[in-house]
Amino acid sequence: MISKIFILIVLVAIIAVIVSSMKVVNTGYVTIIERFGQFHRVLEPGWHFLIPFADFARRKVSNKQQILDIEPQSVITKDNVKISIDNVIFYKILSAKDAVYNIEDYKAGIVFSTITNMRNIVGDMTLDEVLSGRDKINAELLKVVDDITDAYGIKILSVEIKNIIPPAEIQQAMEKQMKAERDKRAVILQAEGQKQSDIARAEGEKQAKILQAEAEKEANIRRAEGLRQSQMLEAEGKAKAIESVAEAQSKAIHLVNRAIIDSGTDEKVIALKQVEALKEMAKNPANKLILPNESISSLGNMAAIADMIQKK
Question: Could you count the other beta carbons within 10 Å of the beta carbon of residue 280?
Answer without folding.
Answer: 10
